[in-house]
Design goal:
- The protein has helices at 37-50, 55-69, 84-87, 110-117, 154-164, 174-181, 185-191, 198-207; strands at 5-16, 80-81, 94-98, 105-107, 127-130, 142-144, 192-194, 220-227.
- By secondary structure, it is an alpha+beta fold.
- It has two domains: 5-138 and 197-227, no CATH class; 142-194, no CATH class.
- Strands 1, 2, 3, 4, 5 and 8 form a six-stranded antiparallel beta sheet that branches.
- α1 runs antiparallel to α2.
């Protein structure tokens, strides 16, 4: 059982192309397995926490710190999920997922493993299941990915979202949507997505992952299954 099924709930992309990807800084993965970065990241979080006034934001950082402090073996690679077999293909499009919670990742158990091996279709294949516009609990916040800001008021965004998820969306008046969140229906469909959790944003800043801070909003909620 050296090779097992990995399942990850997180925020990612399906078209990552390594160092050729214009959204990512070259070489950002070189320190992923550096154990020294555990303390460096904790120091980075403490510094950020000391400069924040908003109580909610402070709590987010506090929870992130606590989870890393409890895990003495934590290293940056724990938050990055990528099939090693896909990574070997270098510049071909492939999934890359960030998962900052332990409960968001798991291996198969022995029953999953043997059940998959015996399937006549060759077993479970690597795949991504998009969660579309559904956020991952408890990160219930939506932003315009072009700006990283909430369009209109938070409650109004959820009003539009409820309509979007209903059978009445096609008949929904475009002027109504624009009046309460300042965007057209088409803009809502294209640009309003679940916000990336603060801990993943801080992680990306710490490792200098993205060339432009707004590039982090290319990440979408998804479930990633792969063999490793």
């Amino acid at each position: 059982m050296g090779i097992r099924i990995h399942k990850t709930l997180g925020y990612g992309i399906t078209n990552y192309i390594g160092d050729k990807d214009a959204r990512f800084n070259v070489g950002w993965k070189k320190e992923l397995y550096n154990d020294d970065y555990r303390q460096k990241f904790l120091d980075f979080l403490k510094d950020k926490e000391s400069k924040i006034i908003n109580t909610s934001d402070k709590l987010d950082i506090s929870f992130t710190k606590a989870s890393i402090e409890e895990d003495e073996h934590w290293c940056p690679a724990d938050w990055v999920q990528e099939s090693p077999f896909e990574a070997e293909k270098d510049h071909r499009k492939r999934p890359l997922v960030f998962a900052s919670q332990k409960k968001w990742t798991r291996y198969d158990n022995i029953i999953d493993y043997y059940e998959s091996k015996r399937r006549r279709d060759g077993g479970i294949k690597d795949y991504v299941q998009s969660l579309k516009k559904e956020y991952i609990y408890p990160y219930a916040r939506y932003v315009d990915v072009r700006t990283g800001k909430i369009p209109g008021e938070k409650d109004y965004v959820f009003e539009v979202l409820r309509m979007y998820n209903s059978e009445f969306w096609e008949k929904t008046n475009d002027d109504w949507v624009k009046e309460i969140i300042g965007l057209t229906k088409e803009e809502f469909e294209l640009y309003v997505w679940p916000d990336v959790p603060r801990d993943i944003k801080l992680f990306a800043e710490f490792l200098n992952i993205f060339k432009n801070p707004l590039d982090i909003y290319c990440l979408r909620p998804m479930i990633y299954t792969h063999w490793s």
